[in-house]
Amino acid sequence: MITDQYSLDSEYIKRYLGELTPIQESRLLQLRKWIADLQKGKVPSDTTLLRFLRARDFNVEKAREMLSQSLLWRKKHQVDKILSEYETPDVVKQYFPGGWHHHDKDGRPLYVLRLGQMDVKGLLKSIGEDGLLKLTLHVCEEGLKLLEEATRSSEHAVHSWCLLVDLDGLNMRHLWRPGVRALLRIIQIVEANYPETMGRVLIVRAPRVFPILWTIVSTFIDENTRSKFLFYGGKDYLQAGGLLDYIPKEYIPDFLGGPCKSDIVETSLFVPHRFYKYVRHSFVHEGGLVPKSLYASGAFTERDGDPLSEDSIYRSVSLAKGQVHEMIVVNRDPQSVLTWDFDVLRHDISFTVFRTDCELEQPDQTDHAAAVCVGGAAIEEGKSLLEARGWREGEHYHRVEPALICHDGESIQGSHVMSESGSYLLQWRCELLDSSRAAQLMYFHEILASHHYKGSMSSLQSATSGFSCLSNKSGSSCPSR
């Protein structure tokens, strides 16, 4: 039903907008008139106006400012053309673990995201930060169209969707700083331009490491949106008060113990109410590691002056046969977390972590932790700094991470809770080399202060090796990509 700009039919309100108080109706009309004057007659739908009003507690001035900025943003970035012009990259089709999947019990379109199985670094290096943003905007625009269809096909207004996030597999890999920065940028853009579209967010299989990520991102999420989050750890999402309270049983994904297949394209009826009659596809890819062969040169570049620049935080090292490269970390903050991220660029390299009660290098007294790098060429051929001092393993120092052979082309991420004070030593050793060319690796390490992560320690280490893995389907101790 088309209404004029000075009145709203009561049946139209109930059917397409939901319940509105007289004051809310009046402010909707006021915002419509203001935007009509600003846009010279081209006005967004009443549902769009309502979303921005709700985001600003029906303060018309604030809603108008927010909406005006969003309309300028849409025009500048040609967002209205995304649905017709966006071509999904092959790497997204194969490795992005998300998709629209039927509906929840309130008739909201349901989007499923297997975040724990997402290779954030691989996607960024394949399609770039802007590519990941464009993918997100395409999903949001799809969602708006699904809301329109849901409202037309049901007996009531449907103006928000439901998000189901599976965190199985989440670990320190997902806290890669450039990836977190990209996530925060996307959240800010979505919050500014798609307000009040999120009706409910169901977080399942949340590991103990999740509070670390949540602490980082939650401050960027609107308080009203945060109130719509429901968290489930372990398998309690299958118990009373879990997913079955919000999603029809027949639509619980198979990877969460439900009967609904999500790993093949299937045509199904979207029928949250008896009048719903439209056909759609349900497909949620399982994700996985993006092969380096799909990385695009220049796809991921840091902004000028950005302290997260890879050039400033990653160190490159060449190792001849038998050489050792070691990074010393002096820890005075028990329960702090040592994390690492490195790529093997050529040949195979052995990696392990040791600890000794002795301080191998005395840093500035004001530092809680400090690191110094020693190269294999500086010590006796084939010996580590520990061995060069005549120390014996088990007596003077201890191995806290078992040796891992990292193959050419692999990327390794991991972490270790430094439960005691002392010196920790990250060691890379080139033991076998059949070529005259030196082995190469590029690495980064970081120390996370203990006071940030209390209560999250147990999930930062694997029960067997301490190495964080993206997926337990990987054949090696740590995944490669």
Can you offer a commentary on this structure?
- Pfam families: CRAL_TRIO, CRAL_TRIO_N.
- InterPro entries: CRAL-TRIO_dom, CRAL-TRIO_dom_sf, CRAL/TRIO_N_dom, CRAL/TRIO_N_dom_sf, GOLD_dom, GOLD_dom_sf, SEC14/CRAL-TRIO_domain.
- The protein is α+β, with helices and mostly antiparallel strands.
- It folds into three domains: 10-77, N-terminal domain of phosphatidylinositol transfer protein sec14p (Helicase, Ruva Protein, domain 3, Orthogonal Bundle), CATH 1.10.8; 84-268 and 279-289, CRAL-TRIO lipid binding domain (Phosphatidylinositol Transfer Protein Sec14p, 3-Layer(aba) Sandwich), CATH 3.40.525.10; 315-464, Sandwich (Jelly Rolls).
- Helices cover 28% and strands 23% of the residues.
- It has twelve helices and 16 strands.
- Strand 3, helix 8 (177-193) and strand 4 (198-204) form a beta-alpha-beta unit.
- Helix 7 packs parallel to helix 8 (177-193).
- The protein is elongated.
Q: Please give the CATH architecture of the largest domain.
A: 3-Layer(aba) Sandwich
- What is the CATH topology classification name of the largest domain? Phosphatidylinositol Transfer Protein Sec14p
- The SSE string, one letter per element, is HHHHHHEEHEHEHHEEEHEEEEEHEEEE
Distance between the termini: 53 Å
* Number of alpha- plus pi-helical segments: 12
By CATH's scheme, which homologous superfamily of the largest domain applies?
CRAL-TRIO lipid binding domain
Q: Radius of gyration, Cα only, in angstroms?
A: 26 Å
Supply the helix-strand structural class: alpha+beta
Q: Main sheet?
A: 5 strands, mixed
Strand order of the largest sheet: 1-2-3-4-5
- Quaternary state of the chains: single chain
| CATH top level assignment of the largest domain | Alpha Beta
Number of strands: 16
**Mean pLDDT across residues:** 78
> Strand share of the residues?
15-25%
Poorly predicted regions: 1-6, 264-281, 302-312, 362-373, 375-380, 454-481
Domain CRAL-TRIO: 88-264
Domain GOLD: 310-481
Pfam families: CRAL_TRIO (PF00650), CRAL_TRIO_N (PF03765)
Protein name: Protein real-time
